[in-house]
Queue: 4 jobs
Job 1
Amino acid sequence: MSNELKLLNNWLINSGIQNNVDPDKGGFNAWYSLKNKSYPFIYSEITGYGITTLLFLNSLKENENYLNKAKAAADWIINQAMDESGGIYTRKFYESKNAEDHYSFDKGNIFTFDSGMVLFGMANLYENTKEEKYLEASKKIANFIIRLQKEDGKIFAFYNTKTDEKGDADDKWSNQSGAFHAKVAMGILKTFEITNNKKYKKAAINLCNSAFEFQQDDGRFITNTRDKTTLQHPHCYTAEGLLYCGLKLDNKTFIDSAVKAISWSIMSQNDNGGIPQIFNPKGGFIKHERTDILAQVLRLAIFMKKKLNTGFDLTSIDKLKDRLTSFINVKENTQKGGLFYGFESNGQKYEDLNSWCTMFAINAFNYYYTDEPSIEYLI
């Protein structure tokens, strides 16, 4: 195991980013603030990624502790975050004064993307354990998402359990029906694999097809329809969903679209090896980096080079790997090994150690150092 992976793995398992005390045992916190020495909230979407990450680590080297932690995460979702509808609530804030109404458990908003990330982890967990409760939870979440699918294949971005309203908004990428929802298709397709119910396969294909409306000739996916900008984080989500489903379904159109998207991302690379976070057609690239994006582009680029024989420049990939490495916390303390978030679009630097950035990086460094990267647990 590389030094980067040792550091990241140790932080994920031992730092406390995953709660180990009831009633929130198993839930993953969004990040750890080195300044405040605290966690802001438990994040359901990230707990879904956490399940997948733990299964990924277990696939590399079987360890009962990984499976037990994955089951604890899934149990927290079922017991604390799942609505009767099958949707997954978003954020459980520790202090009400810090709660954001749009995302708080208490206000009833459910995001289909978050539910889809939980679904992928849950369905993979059932495949590993054969425990019926995880199958039932997977079907319940998948059915919830399908009920929010439109005739054109897209899905509504959110649903409110208090008003029974579903909707979209164009104020932020995550509030829109967008190409990034192609990543939700991963969990739906996995549910098809374990149930053989063709309604899930059909829904996943239609969802992936709906992403093409947003792809430009140069490969980028528009992630905000209001200003036609591209944030590379959801841009990569789209490529991840299309790549995974394309390989599972042997669909060359999906795969080629994903490759084209990541070719555009690599083309945008900064001189320091990083990837700019935003492209605005009116102003060009905003070059400040986020480590979730660095890890996403790295894992997709190296996977495509090794498994699809794409012509991506290895020098560019190496520079990206080195840049991502530079964000790992190497100070000797209980938080050693966590990955810093990076920068906001205005250049403000965050010293928080971020859970999902760390999870994505675990995927990325494994893909970089192994000859046979696997798509099965694409976090």
Job 2
Amino acid sequence: FQTAQAAEWNMPVPYSDAVFHTQNIKEFAEDVNKATNGALTIKVHSAGSLIKHPEIKNSVRNGVVPVGEFLLSRLSNENPVFAVDTLPFLASNYDAAEKLWKASKPKVAELLDKQGLMVLFAVPWPPQGLYTKKDVNSLDDLKGVSFRAYNAGTETLASLAGMVPTQVESPDIPQAFATGRVQAMITSPSTGVSSKSWDFLTHYYDTQAWLPKNITVVNKKAFRRLDKSVQDAILAAAKRAEERGWAMSRSETDAKTKTLADNGIKVAKPSSALNDGLQKIGKTMAADWLEKAGADGTAVLGAYKN
């Protein structure tokens, strides 16, 4: 990297310019540019245009780029702690999610620090809800239903609920429903709107199953090469970006849930029977996770519950 004298940093992000995470990061970059009077310019490359999502973390680690953003739970194969925010019904609203981030951040930061990475900020996606083609009052109504899964966690959830998991990526959602490959899914209001779910679904249950986070990290060596004043400007901008990003996520949830209803989807809270059934599945999955995550996982959950 160049010295602190008018450096330019390239920053890969996985999502498009329309996504609030990317908009927040562009504001973060502008904040840094302004605060440093151009001593550091951060150039944001959206939608995986510079580096594809699965490679972003290691590209920052290896110094290919100095800074980048990715979905934190993508690292769960390195350490289960990275996926604590995808445990169903552990933290199922924004206040709980914020508490969980405070409890897990020290461990997440320590694990990334060992890879030469420093955490700048993390921002959640809207809470995940259940989309179906029919009324669902309890888990019994989901038995045998073909369910869109997108990772190991959603496959497990489907199986424990008696559904049949089928892997479908976001862009393929409309076709999978149209052809009858799947009849239900759990995803955010954002994905529900971007996939125009009202074309092929009728119900949305606001289960707030989990709030997965995107994280922004910087290469420690690149950071250390900067003047102290530039480092301070980055940290101040990162703190603002985290606060602003959480507020943007809350607004996104309200706006996109309203869009679902405006387009004729029946938006409802889950019945107590459905909620109880899902909570039970959450407890089973948390126990399995704890076994894999060991002492680190126990420490994170302990901090969260206290």
Job 3
Amino acid sequence: MRYKKSAMIVAPQPEPTEAGADILREGGNAVDAGIACALVQGVVDPQMCGIAGMGSMHLHLPSQGVHTTLDFHGRSPKAVRPDMWEDRIVREAEDGWGFILTGRENELGYQAATTPRTLAAFDAALKRHGTMTLRELLDPAIEYAEHGFQVRPHMVHFWTRPPIAGRDGNLPIVTKFPATRAIYCRPDGHHLEVGDILRNPDMAATLRRIADRGAEDFYHGDIARRIDSDMRANGGLISLDDLADCAPETNPPLWGTYRGYRIATNTNPPKD
């Protein structure tokens, strides 16, 4: 099957766009290519996205008669209480989005994590509308995680930029734990610089296991049990019950108008 030369893959880094374009060349459809792109993006830009993250997907597939959205924004774990951080509030963040806490628990560490629904959404989209399997599409992401990719100027700028809206800077986030320091720092403790090669062998191993055993392992199998155990050992809030409930929500597009055009976008209605 020949791919359409009018197709476009867009991402902040070149590696994900190349992975998506390769899938189109191999005969995959837009869903296959988009998810291959997103999986690689989660390796090369993990502070902004990844299989344990959240997001939304807007699918317009005329050949299938499909126009729908998948919403997989992170939810608060079941152990969260409305008043649990009430005595730690310092002030509202300067941009009006959230609050600054004394211990930064909502920014750094185990209690800052919401439920990881992205992988479930990728798996669901492929099974409903794709032509390739998650196993096939994970290969490029595994390759980049295992063998590495070159650090570019924007990455270093993102890590080292000044704090925004009263929150901590990004460098403390990527260097807080020994496991992340091993990924983002040189042996002398200094963060990686432009031109260095960033490798993430632990992520490669996790992605390879998912390729072998499916997304089910992440939410119900051995990976889920390891997440639960790690959370319990470090004061985290995500449990096996939270992981078991992870799934995307299918909703019709939200429509509006702009200068005579009808515009469709994702919606994420509150849960009942």
Job 4
Amino acid sequence: LRGGMDGLTAIPVIGDKNLKKKRKKLILEETLKLNSDFALHPKLHSFYDLWQNNQAAFVHATSIPYTGRSHFDGQNLMESGGNVPYQEKTGWLGRGMMAANHIGEGLALALPMPLLLRGVPLNDNYYPAKGSLPSKIVLESLSSAYRENGEINLQMVMDIIRKRPLSMMMSGRNGRNHRSLAKETAKLLSLNDGPSVAVFDLDGFDTHAAQGGVNGLHADHLEDVNDIVEELRKNLGNTFENTLILTLTEFGRTVKQNGGNGTEHGWGSAILMAGGLLKKAQVHTDWPGLKKKNLYEGRDLLSTLDARAVYLSAMAVCFHVEPELLRREVFWGDNLSDLTASLFKI
């Protein structure tokens, strides 16, 4: 979720006078109550339905270790899992797939291939294009030429392209085709020989002005996330029981609204999760509070949990590998907590 998803809007804390004081124009009039401490933005209603069945959970007051305020640096570290911007050329998910021998089992709905998935060969990536598509004859001709010239890798790439459903290669109105993409992705994930990992790349969360509350810019983008999860849930069928969906973002947003009724770049945010591999419905957090003395630099929700620990634990469960292997092979031995027993079915 590029731009800095606002965890305090997605998962607002209930009854905190500090939030009400600092966000007078951004307070949600309506929420979906999760427990005595936290609620859910109403645009995330599919998550709420899943919550009732122990198939949705959230991690709050979390972020990657990056505490700067650059989208470019933050997104690079969000995907690489590193500690220094631009130092790593592969992504934590790609390295995790490689460590678990999940080669050629990734699908990214983005162009170019996201850094997140780099590091494992033969993953697939594309995004719906406007205009005409190459005909079946053209694809067959290219594929044949690669075979005749002994271009094994290119032949494998062409085979990947030919497997793409036509509906996933055509853009919807104004290029916003999230539901159709999610529907077709779910079908592919359900295939025995289909991808085991899919990545959706959504932007627009950088709401410096007119952020809105129940409705508005940020709410619209949360709705996109909700729509994708809803389509995945409906179309994965029984596969949903063996699925884990989670979000990542480069940082959160300031607790206090600005003069334009928006928020600035912050630190702590939240991770949204759904799927049958979740242990239970919960808001997992070491909540730091919103008093100024408890904020990062007096302005941001503190991150009390390294988000990479969540991603490490998620990969351990989904790829059936030991967390220690991933900690060593993917995150260079960084001191990341093993959250598998706390968050997921094992």
